[in-house]
Design goal:
Number of helices of chain B: 9
Largest sheet of chain B: 3 strands, antiparallel
CATH architecture of chain A: Orthogonal Bundle
Number of helices of chain A: 5
Distance between the termini of chain B: 42 Å
CATH class of chain A: Mainly Alpha
CATH topology of chain A: Helix Hairpins
Largest sheet of chain A: none
Oligomer: heterodimer
Number of strands of chain A: 0
Distance between the termini of chain A: 58 Å
Number of domains of chain B: 2
Radius of gyration of chain B: 26 Å
Order of helices and strands of chain A: HHHHH
Structural class of chain A: mainly alpha
Chain lengths: 135, 287
Protein backbone atom coordinates (compact mmCIF):
# COMPACT_ATOMS: atom_id res chain seq x y z
CA UNK A 1 0.00 0.00 0.00
CA UNK A 2 2.82 2.38 0.84
CA UNK A 3 4.14 1.89 -2.68
CA UNK A 4 0.84 2.49 -4.44
CA UNK A 5 -0.16 5.67 -2.61
CA UNK A 6 2.58 7.93 -4.05
CA UNK A 7 1.67 6.72 -7.55
CA UNK A 8 -1.96 7.69 -7.00
CA UNK A 9 -1.05 11.07 -5.55
CA UNK A 10 1.38 11.85 -8.37
CA UNK A 11 -1.22 11.04 -11.03
CA UNK A 12 -4.50 11.90 -9.35
CA UNK A 13 -5.68 13.85 -12.42
CA UNK A 14 -5.85 10.63 -14.43
CA UNK A 15 -7.67 8.85 -11.63
CA UNK A 16 -10.29 11.60 -11.48
CA UNK A 17 -10.85 11.55 -15.22
CA UNK A 18 -11.07 7.77 -15.34
CA UNK A 19 -13.61 7.66 -12.50
CA UNK A 20 -15.76 10.36 -14.16
CA UNK A 21 -15.46 8.68 -17.54
CA UNK A 22 -16.61 5.33 -16.18
CA UNK A 23 -19.56 6.94 -14.39
CA UNK A 24 -20.57 8.47 -17.72
CA UNK A 25 -20.05 5.24 -19.65
CA UNK A 26 -22.03 3.24 -17.10
CA UNK A 27 -24.91 5.71 -17.30
CA UNK A 28 -24.87 5.66 -21.10
CA UNK A 29 -24.99 1.85 -21.27
CA UNK A 30 -27.27 0.86 -18.43
CA UNK A 31 -29.76 3.67 -17.81
CA UNK A 32 -33.18 3.22 -19.30
CA UNK A 33 -34.21 6.85 -19.52
CA UNK A 34 -32.92 8.80 -22.52
CA UNK A 35 -32.34 12.00 -20.55
CA UNK A 36 -30.23 10.06 -18.03
CA UNK A 37 -28.25 8.67 -20.94
CA UNK A 38 -27.65 12.22 -22.17
CA UNK A 39 -26.49 13.27 -18.71
CA UNK A 40 -24.09 10.32 -18.79
CA UNK A 41 -22.82 11.46 -22.18
CA UNK A 42 -22.23 14.95 -20.80
CA UNK A 43 -20.28 13.56 -17.82
CA UNK A 44 -18.19 11.53 -20.28
CA UNK A 45 -17.43 14.64 -22.37
CA UNK A 46 -16.51 16.60 -19.25
CA UNK A 47 -14.06 13.90 -18.19
CA UNK A 48 -12.34 14.08 -21.58
CA UNK A 49 -12.12 17.87 -21.26
CA UNK A 50 -10.54 17.52 -17.79
CA UNK A 51 -8.07 14.98 -19.17
CA UNK A 52 -6.95 17.23 -22.00
CA UNK A 53 -6.60 20.31 -19.83
CA UNK A 54 -4.67 18.37 -17.19
CA UNK A 55 -2.08 17.01 -19.64
CA UNK A 56 -1.31 20.56 -20.76
CA UNK A 57 -0.40 21.63 -17.23
CA UNK A 58 3.20 22.37 -16.19
CA UNK A 59 4.31 23.01 -12.62
CA UNK A 60 5.38 26.61 -11.93
CA UNK A 61 4.03 27.80 -15.27
CA UNK A 62 1.49 30.54 -15.96
CA UNK A 63 -1.42 30.94 -18.37
CA UNK A 64 -0.52 30.89 -22.08
CA UNK A 65 -0.49 34.65 -22.60
CA UNK A 66 2.99 36.06 -23.23
CA UNK A 67 3.94 38.61 -20.60
CA UNK A 68 5.40 42.00 -21.54
CA UNK A 69 4.34 41.54 -25.15
CA UNK A 70 1.48 44.02 -25.14
CA UNK A 71 1.84 47.27 -26.98
CA UNK A 72 4.68 48.38 -29.22
CA UNK A 73 7.27 49.22 -26.55
CA UNK A 74 9.02 45.88 -26.96
CA UNK A 75 10.17 44.53 -30.25
CA UNK A 76 9.24 40.86 -30.40
CA UNK A 77 12.81 39.84 -31.08
CA UNK A 78 14.01 41.22 -27.74
CA UNK A 79 11.67 38.94 -25.81
CA UNK A 80 13.17 35.76 -24.46
CA UNK A 81 10.44 33.16 -24.05
CA UNK A 82 10.98 29.87 -22.27
CA UNK A 83 8.52 27.13 -23.12
CA UNK A 84 8.59 25.90 -19.51
CA UNK A 85 7.14 29.22 -18.24
CA UNK A 86 3.82 28.91 -20.05
CA UNK A 87 1.40 26.01 -19.98
CA UNK A 88 0.67 24.17 -23.19
CA UNK A 89 -1.91 26.16 -25.21
CA UNK A 90 -2.86 23.32 -27.54
CA UNK A 91 -5.17 21.31 -25.21
CA UNK A 92 -6.89 24.55 -24.24
CA UNK A 93 -7.59 25.36 -27.88
CA UNK A 94 -8.97 21.90 -28.57
CA UNK A 95 -11.18 21.93 -25.49
CA UNK A 96 -12.36 25.50 -26.01
CA UNK A 97 -14.02 24.46 -29.25
CA UNK A 98 -15.05 21.08 -27.83
CA UNK A 99 -17.02 22.72 -25.01
CA UNK A 100 -19.07 24.90 -27.34
CA UNK A 101 -19.60 22.08 -29.82
CA UNK A 102 -20.66 19.74 -27.01
CA UNK A 103 -23.23 22.28 -25.83
CA UNK A 104 -24.56 22.65 -29.37
CA UNK A 105 -24.76 18.90 -29.98
CA UNK A 106 -26.38 18.47 -26.57
CA UNK A 107 -29.04 20.89 -27.80
CA UNK A 108 -29.61 18.69 -30.86
CA UNK A 109 -29.82 15.60 -28.60
CA UNK A 110 -32.44 17.34 -26.44
CA UNK A 111 -34.40 18.30 -29.57
CA UNK A 112 -34.38 14.66 -30.67
CA UNK A 113 -35.54 13.61 -27.19
CA UNK A 114 -38.41 16.10 -27.43
CA UNK A 115 -39.42 14.65 -30.80
CA UNK A 116 -39.27 11.09 -29.40
CA UNK A 117 -41.45 12.14 -26.49
CA UNK A 118 -43.98 13.74 -28.82
CA UNK A 119 -44.18 10.54 -30.88
CA UNK A 120 -44.17 7.88 -28.15
CA UNK A 121 -45.26 9.83 -25.01
CA UNK A 122 -42.36 8.37 -23.08
CA UNK A 123 -38.59 8.59 -22.75
CA UNK A 124 -38.06 5.11 -21.27
CA UNK A 125 -36.16 2.95 -23.70
CA UNK A 126 -37.99 -0.35 -23.05
CA UNK A 127 -41.39 1.33 -23.44
CA UNK A 128 -40.30 2.86 -26.74
CA UNK A 129 -39.15 -0.57 -27.90
CA UNK A 130 -42.54 -2.01 -26.87
CA UNK A 131 -44.37 0.65 -28.90
CA UNK A 132 -42.14 -0.08 -31.89
CA UNK A 133 -42.94 -3.81 -31.83
CA UNK A 134 -46.66 -3.05 -31.45
CA UNK A 135 -46.78 -0.98 -34.61
CA UNK B 1 -46.43 -12.58 -15.56
CA UNK B 2 -43.65 -14.80 -16.81
CA UNK B 3 -42.82 -12.36 -19.57
CA UNK B 4 -42.77 -9.51 -17.12
CA UNK B 5 -40.42 -11.45 -14.88
CA UNK B 6 -38.07 -12.31 -17.71
CA UNK B 7 -38.05 -8.68 -18.84
CA UNK B 8 -37.11 -7.56 -15.36
CA UNK B 9 -34.36 -10.16 -15.22
CA UNK B 10 -33.14 -9.01 -18.62
CA UNK B 11 -33.00 -5.42 -17.44
CA UNK B 12 -31.05 -6.43 -14.38
CA UNK B 13 -28.72 -8.54 -16.50
CA UNK B 14 -27.96 -5.56 -18.74
CA UNK B 15 -27.23 -3.45 -15.69
CA UNK B 16 -24.90 -6.07 -14.18
CA UNK B 17 -23.19 -6.63 -17.53
CA UNK B 18 -22.63 -2.95 -18.14
CA UNK B 19 -21.34 -2.34 -14.62
CA UNK B 20 -18.98 -5.31 -15.05
CA UNK B 21 -17.75 -3.97 -18.38
CA UNK B 22 -17.22 -0.44 -17.17
CA UNK B 23 -15.50 -1.79 -14.04
CA UNK B 24 -13.16 -3.91 -16.19
CA UNK B 25 -12.38 -0.93 -18.43
CA UNK B 26 -11.89 1.18 -15.32
CA UNK B 27 -9.25 -1.23 -14.00
CA UNK B 28 -7.55 -1.40 -17.39
CA UNK B 29 -7.31 2.38 -17.64
CA UNK B 30 -6.07 2.72 -14.07
CA UNK B 31 -3.42 0.11 -14.84
CA UNK B 32 -2.40 2.16 -17.88
CA UNK B 33 -1.93 5.34 -15.83
CA UNK B 34 1.36 3.86 -14.56
CA UNK B 35 2.84 4.65 -17.99
CA UNK B 36 1.40 8.15 -18.15
CA UNK B 37 3.62 11.18 -17.48
CA UNK B 38 3.42 12.68 -14.00
CA UNK B 39 1.05 15.56 -13.29
CA UNK B 40 2.61 18.88 -14.34
CA UNK B 41 5.70 17.39 -15.98
CA UNK B 42 7.12 20.05 -18.36
CA UNK B 43 8.86 17.36 -20.46
CA UNK B 44 5.86 15.12 -21.01
CA UNK B 45 5.21 14.09 -24.65
CA UNK B 46 2.23 16.43 -24.95
CA UNK B 47 4.37 19.38 -23.89
CA UNK B 48 7.51 18.65 -25.87
CA UNK B 49 7.12 18.60 -29.67
CA UNK B 50 4.70 21.13 -31.11
CA UNK B 51 3.82 23.19 -28.06
CA UNK B 52 7.28 24.79 -27.50
CA UNK B 53 7.14 26.06 -31.08
CA UNK B 54 3.74 27.63 -30.45
CA UNK B 55 4.95 29.23 -27.22
CA UNK B 56 8.28 30.55 -28.48
CA UNK B 57 7.46 31.54 -32.05
CA UNK B 58 3.85 32.74 -31.78
CA UNK B 59 4.75 36.37 -31.01
CA UNK B 60 7.29 36.43 -33.81
CA UNK B 61 5.07 34.77 -36.39
CA UNK B 62 1.66 36.19 -35.56
CA UNK B 63 2.16 39.12 -33.20
CA UNK B 64 -0.57 37.97 -30.82
CA UNK B 65 0.30 37.52 -27.12
CA UNK B 66 -2.64 35.24 -26.32
CA UNK B 67 -1.33 31.89 -27.51
CA UNK B 68 -4.72 30.23 -27.31
CA UNK B 69 -6.13 32.72 -29.82
CA UNK B 70 -3.15 32.49 -32.14
CA UNK B 71 -3.29 28.68 -32.21
CA UNK B 72 -7.09 28.70 -32.50
CA UNK B 73 -7.48 31.23 -35.28
CA UNK B 74 -4.17 31.06 -37.13
CA UNK B 75 -2.24 27.80 -36.77
CA UNK B 76 -5.42 25.73 -36.57
CA UNK B 77 -7.70 28.01 -38.57
CA UNK B 78 -9.25 25.21 -40.62
CA UNK B 79 -10.22 23.27 -37.51
CA UNK B 80 -11.93 26.29 -35.98
CA UNK B 81 -13.76 27.08 -39.21
CA UNK B 82 -15.32 23.64 -39.29
CA UNK B 83 -16.08 23.73 -35.56
CA UNK B 84 -18.01 26.93 -36.30
CA UNK B 85 -19.76 25.09 -39.11
CA UNK B 86 -20.68 22.33 -36.62
CA UNK B 87 -22.26 24.92 -34.30
CA UNK B 88 -24.15 26.37 -37.28
CA UNK B 89 -25.36 22.89 -38.26
CA UNK B 90 -26.50 22.22 -34.67
CA UNK B 91 -28.59 25.39 -34.70
CA UNK B 92 -30.00 24.42 -38.10
CA UNK B 93 -30.80 20.87 -36.90
CA UNK B 94 -32.66 22.19 -33.85
CA UNK B 95 -34.69 24.50 -36.06
CA UNK B 96 -35.52 21.77 -38.58
CA UNK B 97 -36.41 19.20 -35.93
CA UNK B 98 -38.57 21.31 -33.68
CA UNK B 99 -39.93 24.39 -35.45
CA UNK B 100 -43.70 24.23 -35.59
CA UNK B 101 -45.47 26.92 -37.62
CA UNK B 102 -48.97 25.76 -36.73
CA UNK B 103 -50.67 28.44 -34.69
CA UNK B 104 -52.87 27.60 -31.74
CA UNK B 105 -56.60 27.84 -32.39
CA UNK B 106 -57.24 29.86 -29.27
CA UNK B 107 -55.74 33.30 -28.87
CA UNK B 108 -55.52 35.19 -25.61
CA UNK B 109 -54.95 38.89 -25.32
CA UNK B 110 -54.41 40.78 -22.09
CA UNK B 111 -55.47 44.39 -21.74
CA UNK B 112 -52.48 45.80 -19.91
CA UNK B 113 -54.00 48.77 -17.95
CA UNK B 114 -56.94 46.76 -16.56
CA UNK B 115 -55.63 43.20 -16.65
CA UNK B 116 -58.71 41.92 -18.48
CA UNK B 117 -58.03 38.83 -20.61
CA UNK B 118 -59.84 38.45 -23.93
CA UNK B 119 -60.13 35.04 -25.56
CA UNK B 120 -60.69 34.39 -29.28
CA UNK B 121 -61.88 30.89 -30.16
CA UNK B 122 -61.12 29.40 -33.58
CA UNK B 123 -60.97 32.83 -35.11
CA UNK B 124 -58.45 34.63 -37.20
CA UNK B 125 -59.18 37.73 -35.17
CA UNK B 126 -56.15 39.46 -33.82
CA UNK B 127 -55.68 42.59 -31.79
CA UNK B 128 -52.92 45.13 -32.37
CA UNK B 129 -50.18 44.22 -29.91
CA UNK B 130 -48.65 47.27 -28.36
CA UNK B 131 -49.08 49.48 -25.33
CA UNK B 132 -52.70 48.44 -24.76
CA UNK B 133 -52.78 44.73 -25.55
CA UNK B 134 -50.31 41.91 -25.31
CA UNK B 135 -50.47 38.41 -26.74
CA UNK B 136 -50.36 35.80 -23.94
CA UNK B 137 -50.80 32.07 -23.41
CA UNK B 138 -52.67 29.92 -20.94
CA UNK B 139 -49.50 29.42 -18.88
CA UNK B 140 -49.06 33.17 -18.51
CA UNK B 141 -47.80 34.34 -15.12
CA UNK B 142 -47.43 37.96 -14.04
CA UNK B 143 -43.99 39.52 -14.41
CA UNK B 144 -41.89 40.01 -11.32
CA UNK B 145 -41.01 43.70 -11.03
CA UNK B 146 -37.69 43.10 -9.22
CA UNK B 147 -36.40 40.51 -11.69
CA UNK B 148 -37.52 42.66 -14.61
CA UNK B 149 -35.79 45.78 -13.32
CA UNK B 150 -32.55 44.03 -12.36
CA UNK B 151 -32.35 42.33 -15.74
CA UNK B 152 -33.06 45.57 -17.57
CA UNK B 153 -30.09 47.13 -15.80
CA UNK B 154 -27.80 44.10 -16.12
CA UNK B 155 -28.34 43.00 -19.72
CA UNK B 156 -26.56 45.97 -21.40
CA UNK B 157 -23.51 45.39 -19.22
CA UNK B 158 -23.47 41.66 -19.98
CA UNK B 159 -23.62 42.46 -23.68
CA UNK B 160 -20.89 45.06 -23.40
CA UNK B 161 -18.74 42.53 -21.56
CA UNK B 162 -19.39 39.98 -24.32
CA UNK B 163 -18.24 42.49 -26.95
CA UNK B 164 -15.14 43.20 -24.86
CA UNK B 165 -14.36 39.48 -24.61
CA UNK B 166 -14.60 39.14 -28.41
CA UNK B 167 -12.65 42.30 -29.21
CA UNK B 168 -9.88 41.69 -26.66
CA UNK B 169 -9.47 38.00 -27.43
CA UNK B 170 -6.03 38.61 -28.94
CA UNK B 171 -4.55 40.15 -25.80
CA UNK B 172 -6.39 38.72 -22.81
CA UNK B 173 -8.38 35.56 -22.11
CA UNK B 174 -11.33 35.51 -24.45
CA UNK B 175 -12.35 35.08 -28.05
CA UNK B 176 -15.25 34.45 -30.34
CA UNK B 177 -16.61 31.31 -28.74
CA UNK B 178 -16.66 32.73 -25.22
CA UNK B 179 -17.97 36.15 -26.21
CA UNK B 180 -20.66 34.60 -28.40
CA UNK B 181 -21.87 32.39 -25.59
CA UNK B 182 -21.96 35.35 -23.15
CA UNK B 183 -23.94 37.45 -25.64
CA UNK B 184 -26.33 34.58 -26.29
CA UNK B 185 -26.83 34.04 -22.58
CA UNK B 186 -27.78 37.70 -22.15
CA UNK B 187 -30.57 37.20 -24.70
CA UNK B 188 -31.66 34.03 -22.86
CA UNK B 189 -31.74 36.02 -19.61
CA UNK B 190 -34.02 38.50 -21.35
CA UNK B 191 -36.33 35.65 -22.37
CA UNK B 192 -36.38 34.24 -18.83
CA UNK B 193 -36.92 37.57 -17.07
CA UNK B 194 -39.72 38.77 -19.40
CA UNK B 195 -41.07 35.99 -21.58
CA UNK B 196 -40.09 34.23 -24.75
CA UNK B 197 -42.56 36.25 -26.86
CA UNK B 198 -40.87 39.49 -25.87
CA UNK B 199 -37.51 38.14 -27.01
CA UNK B 200 -38.86 36.75 -30.27
CA UNK B 201 -40.55 40.09 -31.01
CA UNK B 202 -37.38 42.02 -30.26
CA UNK B 203 -34.95 39.64 -32.01
CA UNK B 204 -36.69 38.21 -35.04
CA UNK B 205 -36.23 34.57 -35.93
CA UNK B 206 -35.12 35.43 -39.46
CA UNK B 207 -32.47 37.76 -38.07
CA UNK B 208 -31.07 34.98 -35.87
CA UNK B 209 -30.93 32.55 -38.79
CA UNK B 210 -29.25 35.18 -40.92
CA UNK B 211 -26.66 35.92 -38.20
CA UNK B 212 -25.98 32.21 -37.77
CA UNK B 213 -25.11 31.92 -41.46
CA UNK B 214 -23.33 35.28 -41.73
CA UNK B 215 -20.79 34.31 -39.05
CA UNK B 216 -19.62 31.25 -40.98
CA UNK B 217 -19.63 33.36 -44.15
CA UNK B 218 -17.39 36.00 -42.54
CA UNK B 219 -14.93 33.30 -41.49
CA UNK B 220 -14.83 31.58 -44.88
CA UNK B 221 -14.94 34.95 -46.66
CA UNK B 222 -11.77 36.17 -44.94
CA UNK B 223 -10.12 32.92 -46.06
CA UNK B 224 -11.25 33.45 -49.65
CA UNK B 225 -10.11 37.10 -49.63
CA UNK B 226 -6.65 35.89 -48.54
CA UNK B 227 -6.68 33.44 -51.43
CA UNK B 228 -7.75 36.15 -53.88
CA UNK B 229 -4.80 38.29 -52.73
CA UNK B 230 -2.39 35.55 -53.68
CA UNK B 231 -1.88 33.66 -50.44
CA UNK B 232 -3.17 30.42 -49.00
CA UNK B 233 -6.63 30.02 -47.53
CA UNK B 234 -6.72 31.97 -44.21
CA UNK B 235 -3.21 33.37 -44.75
CA UNK B 236 -3.89 36.66 -42.96
CA UNK B 237 -0.51 38.16 -43.87
CA UNK B 238 -1.79 38.91 -47.36
CA UNK B 239 -4.53 41.18 -45.98
CA UNK B 240 -1.94 43.96 -45.58
CA UNK B 241 -2.42 44.72 -49.30
CA UNK B 242 -5.95 46.01 -48.67
CA UNK B 243 -5.94 47.07 -45.00
CA UNK B 244 -4.05 50.26 -44.16
CA UNK B 245 -2.57 48.99 -40.89
CA UNK B 246 0.86 48.15 -39.50
CA UNK B 247 2.04 44.96 -41.27
CA UNK B 248 3.33 43.59 -37.95
CA UNK B 249 -0.19 43.47 -36.58
CA UNK B 250 -2.00 42.35 -39.71
CA UNK B 251 -2.40 38.77 -38.53
CA UNK B 252 -3.99 40.03 -35.29
CA UNK B 253 -6.57 41.93 -37.36
CA UNK B 254 -7.26 38.87 -39.48
CA UNK B 255 -7.82 36.83 -36.33
CA UNK B 256 -10.10 39.52 -34.92
CA UNK B 257 -12.26 39.34 -38.05
CA UNK B 258 -12.42 35.59 -37.82
CA UNK B 259 -13.30 35.74 -34.11
CA UNK B 260 -16.12 38.18 -34.84
CA UNK B 261 -17.53 35.67 -37.32
CA UNK B 262 -17.28 32.88 -34.75
CA UNK B 263 -18.93 35.05 -32.08
CA UNK B 264 -21.90 35.94 -34.32
CA UNK B 265 -22.51 32.31 -35.27
CA UNK B 266 -22.22 30.99 -31.72
CA UNK B 267 -24.49 33.72 -30.33
CA UNK B 268 -27.21 33.08 -32.89
CA UNK B 269 -26.94 29.28 -32.67
CA UNK B 270 -27.25 29.30 -28.86
CA UNK B 271 -30.35 31.51 -28.98
CA UNK B 272 -31.93 29.41 -31.76
CA UNK B 273 -31.35 26.20 -29.77
CA UNK B 274 -32.74 27.75 -26.58
CA UNK B 275 -35.81 29.29 -28.20
CA UNK B 276 -36.75 26.14 -30.07
CA UNK B 277 -36.26 23.73 -27.18
CA UNK B 278 -38.07 25.68 -24.45
CA UNK B 279 -41.17 26.33 -26.55
CA UNK B 280 -41.04 23.02 -28.50
CA UNK B 281 -40.73 25.02 -31.70
CA UNK B 282 -43.88 27.14 -31.26
CA UNK B 283 -42.09 30.34 -30.17
CA UNK B 284 -44.84 31.20 -27.70
CA UNK B 285 -44.68 31.56 -23.94
CA UNK B 286 -42.13 28.76 -23.39
CA UNK B 287 -40.34 28.73 -20.09
Amino acid sequence: MSEILPIIVAKYNYWLYIILMMIGLYAMISKNNLIKKLVGMNIFQTSIILFYVSIGYKTNATIPIIENAHGDSHSPHELIIHAADYINPLPHVLMLTAIVVSVATFGVALALAVKIYQRYQTLEEDEIRMRLTEE
Amino acid sequence: MLQQYSEQAGGQKIEIHSSNHSFALWRLLLYATADFPAWGDPNSPANSYLSPHYIQKSIEETGVPNLVTSVLADYRGFDTMFETAVVFCAGLACFLLLRNFKQKEENFYRHIPTGVIIQFKKGDKTLPVGKEFEHIDTEWIPYDLIIKTVCRILIPFIQLYALYVVAHGDFSPGGGFQGGVIFGSSLMLYAIAYNLRTLVQRVKEKLLGLFCAIGVLIYAGIGVVCMALGGNFLDYGKLSQILPVDPGHIRAYGMLGVEIGVGITVMAAMVIIYVNIVSIGRHDEGL
